[in-house]
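> call design_seq(struct)
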C-alpha cells in the first residue's frame, strides 16, 4: 500500500510540474507576440492588427491567470476544501471568457465606427505586419498543439482554455492578414470597396472570438454548476446513460437508484446508489461495489467513487430467504429453518443462536421481537417455534486429545449399517471436563444430495449415541469420494 501511495504522489507531482511548465511557456510566448502586434498595429494604424494585439493581450492575461490557477488547483484537499481546489481552473477559464467578450465589444465598436465614418481606412504599406502575423501563426499553431496535448493528458480546463485562445489566434491572424492584403490591393488599384477589408477583418476576428468564448463559457459554467461531465464526443446525457447501463449490467445489481457525477479541475467525483439483494454477504456486496467503482472509472478516469448499497427484497426470494433476511437485519443468526404449510397457513420452525452469557429472559424477549418482525414480513405465517441455542463465546481447553481405538471401532461398526457411507477416517476423541466429543471425516458418493447427506449423518449420529451413550457429541465432516484427502 505504501508503494501505491508513493506512486500516486510522484505522478501527481509530475503532472503539476508539466502543467506549470506549459502555462509558464504560454505566458512567455503570449508576451512576445502581444508586444510585436501592438507595435506593428500602432505604426501601421491597422485596426485588424490592433484587434489582434488586443486578442493576444487577452491571451497574455489569460495565460498568467492559467499559470496561477494550475498552481493553486494542484494544492491537495484540506479541511475547508474537501474536494480539493480544482475548480479554480474553471473560474480561471470563465474569467478568460469575460476578457475575450470585453475585447470583442471594443473591436466591434471601433470597426463599425470606421466603416460608418469612412475614417482610418487608408493604411500605409509595411512589410512588418505580414512578418509579424506569419510568425504569430507559426507560434500559435505550435503552442495550441502543445497545450491541447497537455490539457488532455492532465485533464486541465485552464490549459484547455489557453489552447483555445492560441488556436483562435491562428484563424484571427489569418483573417487580419487577408484584410491587410485586400486593403493594400484596394489602395494600389484604387478599389474603394477593398479599403473596408481591414475593419471587416476585425469584425471577423470578433466573430471568431465570440464563438469560442461561448463554447468555453458553456463548458466552464457546466463544470461550476456540477453538470455531468462530457467525455470526448459523448455528451453529458450520453455519458450518464452509458454509466447507468454499465452499472445495471453488473451481476448482483438490481437497479441504479441514483447516479451523480461532477468534475473539479482534473478530478472526477461520482456518487452511486445501487439496489442489491438483501441476502448478500458483506463480501459479495464489497465485490459488487468494487465492480461498480471500476465501471465508473473506465468512463471517468481515476474518479473518486462513493457507492451506497440499499438492501432490497426481490421477487425471487423464498419464504426461507425472507425469514433469514429479517434475522440478518437484527444481526441474528438462524439456521435449520423449516417451513410447513397446513390449514391454509405457514408454520415455521427455526434455531436461533444467542450469546452463551445471555439470560433466558433476555433471550426470550429477543426471540419475541424477532418472531413479531417475521410475521410482519410474511403475514401468512401462523406460528413460529424457535429453538434457542447458546453460541459459544469462549475458547475451550480440552483435557486430552487422542485416538480412542475402542470408540473408533464402535463408530465404524455403526457406520457399516449405512450402505451409502463409504468410509470413516481421521477419528479424533476429545475429553473436556465430563464431556466426550468425537470428530471424524465421512466419505460419501459425489452425487448424493445435501438433504440426504444431512439425513444420513443425523441418523449415524443418533445410532452412535445409542451405541455409546457416554459420547455427548459427534461431529462429522462429509467428503465426496473423488476428493477424499486421506
Amino acid at each position: 500500500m505504501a508503494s501505491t501511495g508513493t506512486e500516486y504522489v510522484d505522478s501527481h507531482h509530475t503532472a503539476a510540474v508539466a502543467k506549470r511548465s506549459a502555462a509558464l511557456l504560454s505566458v512567455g510566448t503570449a508576451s512576445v507576440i502581444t508586444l510585436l502586434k501592438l507595435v506593428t498595429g500602432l505604426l501601421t494604424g491597422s485596426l485588424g492588427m490592433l484587434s489582434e494585439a488586443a486578442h493576444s493581450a487577452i491571451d497574455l492575461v489569460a495565460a498568467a491567470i492559467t499559470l496561477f490557477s494550475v498552481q493553486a488547483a494542484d494544492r491537495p484537499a484540506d479541511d475547508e476544501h474537501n474536494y480539493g481546489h480544482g475548480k479554480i481552473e474553471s473560474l480561471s477559464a470563465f474569467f478568460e471568457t469575460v476578457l475575450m467578450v470585453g475585447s470583442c465589444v471594443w473591436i466591434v465598436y471601433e470597426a463599425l465606427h470606421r466603416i460608418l465614418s469612412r475614417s482610418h481606412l487608408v493604411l500605409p504599406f509595411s512589410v512588418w505586419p505580414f512578418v509579424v502575423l506569419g510568425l504569430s501563426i507559426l507560434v500559435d499553431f505550435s503552442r495550441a498543439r502543445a497545450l491541447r496535448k497537455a490539457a488532455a493528458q492532465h485533464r486541465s480546463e485552464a490549459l484547455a482554455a489557453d489552447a483555445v485562445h492560441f488556436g483562435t489566434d491562428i484563424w484571427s491572424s489569418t483573417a487580419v492578414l487577408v484584410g491587410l492584403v485586400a486593403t493594400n490591393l484596394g489602395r494600389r488599384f484604387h478599389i474603394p470597396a477593398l479599403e473596408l477589408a481591414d475593419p471587416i477583418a476585425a469584425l471577423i476576428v470578433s466573430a471568431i472570438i465570440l464563438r469560442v468564448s461561448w463554447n468555453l463559457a458553456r463548458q466552464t459554467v457546466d463544470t461550476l454548476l456540477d453538470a455531468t461531465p462530457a467525455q470526448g464526443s459523448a455528451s453529458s446525457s450520453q455519458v450518464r446513460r452509458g454509466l447507468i447501463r454499465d452499472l445495471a449490467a453488473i451481476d448482483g445489481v438490481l437497479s441504479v437508484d441514483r447516479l451523480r457525477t461532477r468534475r473539479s479541475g482534473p478530478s472526477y467525483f461520482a456518487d452511486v446508489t445501487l439496489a442489491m439483494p438483501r441476502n448478500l454477504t458483506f463480501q459479495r456486496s464489497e465485490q459488487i461495489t468494487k465492480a461498480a467503482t471500476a465501471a465508473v472509472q473506465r468512463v471517468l478516469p481515476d474518479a473518486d467513487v462513493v457507492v451506497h448499497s440499499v438492501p432490497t427484497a426481490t421477487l425471487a426470494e423464498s419464504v426461507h430467504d425472507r425469514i433469514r433476511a429479517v434475522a440478518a437485519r437484527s444481526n441474528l443468526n438462524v439456521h435449520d429453518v423449516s417451513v410447513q404449510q397446513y390449514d391454509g397457513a405457514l408454520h415455521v420452525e427455526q434455531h436461533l443462536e444467542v450469546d452463551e452469557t445471555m439470560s433466558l429472559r433476555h433471550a426470550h424477549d429477543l426471540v419475541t421481537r424477532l418472531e413479531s418482525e417475521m410475521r410482519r414480513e410474511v403475514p401468512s405465517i401462523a406460528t413460529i417455534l424457535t429453538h434457542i441455542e447458546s453460541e459459544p463465546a469462549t475458547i475451550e481447553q480440552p483435557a486430552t486429545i487422542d485416538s480412542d481405538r475402542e470408540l473408533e471401532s464402535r463408530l465404524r461398526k455403526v457406520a457399516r449399517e449405512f450402505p451409502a457411507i463409504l468410509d470413516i477416517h481421521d477419528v479424533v476423541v476429545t475429553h473436556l471436563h465430563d464431556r466426550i466429543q468425537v470428530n471424524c471425516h465421512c466419505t460419501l458418493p459425489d452425487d448424493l444430495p445435501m438433504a440426504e447427506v444431512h439425513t444420513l449423518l443425523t441418523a449415524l449420529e443418533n445410532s452412535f449415541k445409542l451405541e455409546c451413550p457416554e459420547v455427548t457429541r459427534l461431529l462429522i465432516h462429509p467428503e465426496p469420494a473423488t476428493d477424499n484427502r486421506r
